[in-house]
User: What shape does this take?
Amino acid sequence: MRVGLGYDLHRLVQGRRLVLGGVTIPFEKGLMGHSDADVVFHATCDALLGAAGMGDIGRHFPDTDPKFKDISSTVFVTKVIEMIRERGFSVNNLDATILAEAPKLAPYCRAMETNIATLLNIELGRVNIKATTMEGIDAIGRGEAIAAMCVVSLVLSS
Assistant: This one.
């Protein structure tokens, strides 16, 4: 078994959609980034790549490459899954935490879990998404940013 940890943070700005775990969430701000800035999917990619010993999301999908401008991060997760499968790994489970002062994310966690389970081709019960606030502390607590942390375990495919 191999374990990987991923983390991502993006600033909240006006004029962007808020996309987390592939779910568009109604909110007055969205995350600034070259792609759709989905911190859940970005942290997922980093955790998967880390567990497989394959670097990070920036190495494979640089924000300087115009072909990734405004792209759905679903594309990144799909490509990373292909890459780790080529190395002989499959996903055992995924656990992620979203750090956001607002909006309230609990109503959307199940849809995010479903999206991730589908992309990773694993049972829904092997994916867990949680959300927490920062109690008003730091940039996340002031509502300036949203972050996500993710841990995955990989196993050698049989």
Summary: The beta strands are 2-13, 18-20, 23-25, 30-31, 89-99, 127-132, 145-156.
